[in-house]
Structure formats: structure tokens, C-alpha cells
Design goal:
Oligomer: homodimer
Structural class of chain A: mainly alpha
Strand order of the largest sheet of chain A: 1-2
CATH superfamily of chain A: Farnesyl Diphosphate Synthase
Distance between the termini of chain A: 25 Å
Strand content of chain A: under 5%
Number of domains of chain A: 1
CATH architecture of chain A: Orthogonal Bundle
Order of helices and strands of chain A: HHHHEEHHHHHHHHHH
Number of helices of chain A: 14
Largest sheet of chain A: 2 strands, antiparallel
Chain lengths: 303, 303
Amino acid sequence: MDFTSQLQSYRERIEHGINQLVPVATTRPARLHIAIRYSLQAGGKRLRPVLTLAAADIFLSRSNAPMAPVALNDPLPVAVALECLHTYSLVHDDLPCMDNDDFRRGQPTCHKQFDEATALLTGDALLTLAFQLVARHYPTNPALATALTGILADAAGSERLIGGQMEDLLAEKNAATTTAELDYIHHNKTGAMLTAALLAGGRCGHATPAQLELLRVAGQHLGLAFQIIDDLLDATTDSATLGKTAGKDAKANKTTYVKLHGLEASRRHAREQTDAALAALNRLPSGAPFLSALAENMAARTS
Amino acid sequence: MDFTSQLQSYRERIEHGINQLVPVATTRPARLHIAIRYSLQAGGKRLRPVLTLAAADIFLSRSNAPMAPVALNDPLPVAVALECLHTYSLVHDDLPCMDNDDFRRGQPTCHKQFDEATALLTGDALLTLAFQLVARHYPTNPALATALTGILADAAGSERLIGGQMEDLLAEKNAATTTAELDYIHHNKTGAMLTAALLAGGRCGHATPAQLELLRVAGQHLGLAFQIIDDLLDATTDSATLGKTAGKDAKANKTTYVKLHGLEASRRHAREQTDAALAALNRLPSGAPFLSALAENMAARTS
């Protein structure tokens, strides 16, 4: 299967998984479950769950056996859990006390569509749902379930995702933010969840510790590349193309790669990080061709 | 050991556990970890973790072997996890978009002491930390870790704790809230976490399914009793005694047991719920004397 078809196939599995595994919108309280589905179905790229499914496939070769029965180590539930975590972080990040964003992926953000309290609870519920999914869907493989819980909780915790958010807020008030501080923020805000997505897939595929380490290295570099490109797009693309408010960083006088290094050096940094990710992926079985193509695809993205 | 000494002993174990298992305040980012510890150490009753330790002791008889080595099924990490979940729910519930409370346990609430964004992230971090604790501290007993993750995530999820919060918000705008709706809110807002605390302890103690069911029934009744007494205290006690703003329910014209049924009938309902909890506890080994005394103690509380 070529890259585009494989990506489409992964995304279809993820949409199906979200639809099957997330409580239906009529579940009491309906307002909350409507808001949860609204936020999850706002049409993102599904990057994190795609990473999980693709990382598992390096070892499971599931793509060669599309009709195989659902295994005890099916990566789909934890892939959906990762999308829940990602969506929760966006819903809370968009709140007025954080980034105060009115649009996300071209749609009104959760607190604009509903209200602040509902958005707060929707984020809380999505964070919790991630752990419910892991606890529920690997009942006969508790060692895997516990490893996945640890991967998700560590990546989302106070020393990674939330730590990155906190330092990002502090940096906004501090014009003297350094490259090292910006790297810390991006490693944790973005890199932690991309890495967790790859590690979760690797765990489902019974990757060896050395293979998990390669996935971790790839995730960290992909995360940094992703964030530098985000900064570049915010500085150079209009809101309509981006699907969210563009030019916000400069307006807020926020420290970004572009502000610290300029456009050209930032593009070069992004390329170096992508190359470092590719070098790690290349050492995985068969050179992980889908993930390598995805890394190139991410480097060339325009939204 | 008499009830008061045993309660004190449990609380000391819990304070020690919080101090040992929660990241130190100097962990980067320091502001976040200071806020996490500020919120956890605001001096609550530690009711949920006490329930966990006491429920485990019914089966482990740990109170008879105070010098026993830490077992694979030590209930302390999950007890601390339950306090993290409880504290997260308070920090988010106090935010301006929710109850907008300035004081909690006699101290400024997290968003008053720090700011709204820090309080949002502090709650998110505490919720995540609960699952980190479970994943980290039962590594050699993954079946227990997975069961505990499921108990915590289900209790905190969109159909229990968060569901109750959501319906509570909706009820505030609806003067026609019925007793059945109020029961739903209280069963989920309060009962779910008290039940989870007892079940987590029972799981650590290897309770049988029938014993877990008795703990579940006791938790539901205790939760309802607890909430009715909260309504009574809000209506009849001054802020200084309560350590938080009193009379808020009436001022907000919020539907409470007191508003629906009056003081006398509410006191009778609370007693009936406490008696139903005691009847379930009485069927556990030795009649669960500590938990029974705790139920009576909760029924007589004045803050």
C-alpha cells in the first residue's frame, strides 16, 4: 500500500475507533458527551494515533493482515486514548485563562461553542477517558495495560505536557526566553505526546527495549521539528489556510524559534530535527518506511 | 487501638505518603509543583485515603502488624492517588467559571493564591498524577494496577464525577430540580469517589467480589449521607466554623436537600443513609469496626 492509502486507512480505523470507544452523545449528561464528541470530531490530522498504529505495525505487520482478529495487544484503544489526551490539552489550552482562542481547526473552540465550565469539564473528562480506555480494553493483558498507563500518565504529567504548558505561560511574560528554555517547552509540550504515541504502539507490538529507545529518540526529534514548523506557519500563513488564528505569536510578542533565529535558520533547524528522526527510524525493522514517509510529510506540511 | 488513635495513625501515613510520592516543590517547573503541594496540603480531612487504608485493613489486618514490610499491594500509593483526584476536583470546582470560590479549608483557593491558568494546570496535573502513582507503584502486580486504574478512571469519568459536576451546573440554572436529579448529582459528585476509595482498598486487600459489592453499597450510602450533611452545614453553620463560604447555596438559590425537604427531613434522610451504610459494613469481616465508627463520625461532623 502506498503512503497516502496507508495514511487514509489508519485514519479510517481511528475514526471508527473514536466512534466505537467514546460514549455516545446521548449518554447522561448529554451536554457533556455532545461536547466531548464535538471536540474529538473537529477534524484534526490524527497525528498521534496514526503514530501509534504505525509504530505497532512495524512489529505486528498488521497492515499485511487487514482481516486479522482483534488481538490482545490491538493498538487501537490506546491510539484513541492518545487522541483523547491531545484533544483535552487543546480544549484546556484554548480557554480564556490560557491562550483564549476562539477557533480551532476552523471551528469554534469548545468554550465558544458551549461555555467555559462545559469546556473545563470536557477536558477533564477526555483526560480521564484516556485512562478508562486503557484499563478497559486490555483486561487480559494487564502488564501491557499498566505499561501503557505509565507511558500516557508520564507524558501528560506535571514534568512533561503540563510542565511544558506551565513554562510556556511563564515564558510569555518573559521577553528574555532563551533557546534552551524554548527547547524545554517544545520537548515537553509537543515532544512528550508524540513520543508517547510511538512508545505506546511499540509496546503493543512487543518492541524490544532497544527498539523502544529508537522510537523515543524519533519522537523527541519529530516533536521539535513539529513545533518549529508550527512557529514558521504561524509567522508565514494566513488564518484561513491554518484553520486557526494566525500571527498570534508575533502579536503576543511570544518567544518563538522564528523570533529567536529568523525564518531561514528556523527552516534549517526543522530540517535537522527531521533528519535526526529519520536516522532513528531507519534503524527499526525494514527502516519503518511508513513512519519515515510521515516524517517527511510532516516536514512539508502547510497547516 | 481506639478509633481516634487509629484515625490519627491513618492520617499520619497519608501525610507521609503525600510527602514521599508527590514531586517535590523544586521540581521543574517549580511554580506548578508549589501549587500542587499547596493544594494537596491545605489540610483536608483526608477522608478518601482514610477509607482506602481502612478498607484494605479489613482484609490485610495491617493495623495489627505496624512493622510489616511494604507489600506488593500496599494501599498507600492508591490512597494518595485518591487524594490527588479529590484535590483536582476541588481546584477545578473552585475556578471562576465553576463555583468561583475564594476560600477552601480556610485558605485562599488555588486560583486566588496563584492565578487561573496555574490552577487549571494544577488540577490537570493532579488528575494525571493519580494515574502515574498507580502505574508506578504496583509494577510487580499489574493485574492490581489495572484494576485500580479502572476503578479510579471510572469514578472520575464523564458518567460519574464529571457527569455529576455537569448536571450540578445545569441544575443551578433550573429551579425545578427534582429529588431524583439531586440524588443523581450526589451519587456521582460525591458517592463515586467515596465508593472508589473503599473499592481500591478492598482490591489491595484481595476482597472477594461479594465483599467488594458490600463496600460499593456502603460507599454509595456514605456518599449520599455526606452530601446531605454538607447541605445541612451550608444552611446552618457560619463560614469561620466551616472553613469555606457558608450560606452560598441559599444565596445562589441552589436546589439542595434542605431546600427540597427542610431541615428535619434532611437530618432524617442523612441518618437513614448512614444506617444503610452501617448495615453493609456490618456484613464485612469483624463488622469493619473502624469504618463503622468513621461512618458515625461523619454523620456527627460539624465542618
